[in-house]
Amino acid sequence: MLVIRILPVPITNGGSGRKLGDSMEIISSNVKKIIINTLQARGAKLPCPRCGTNNFTLLDGYFTQPVQQDLKAFSVGPSVPSVVVICNQCGYMSQHALGALGLMPAEETVNNG
User: Rounded to the nearest 5 degrees, what angle is found at the Cα of 57, between the Cα atoms of 46 and 66?
Assistant: First the structure.
């Protein structure tokens, strides 16, 4: 049976003013449950591909991967918002795109008149 914990994971400061090891919740427990239920409903139930354990933790925060259009000039641009599930045994991290899971907030329509 796959187990995904919803406890906060200590992360590096990253300029947020938080100290290492702080456990202030970034993603609410309710949203974490929705993410976990969505992953399981979509079939993300297999054990860790590296060590075979079935115990994971949902990272308490969102992750983005920048999409680069040119290998010669890296810049900030479009990105893929995701959540990260971490294996409790070996630390393997798997990313799950929020858009593909249907978990991105609806875009606001801007009316330029």
Answer: 90
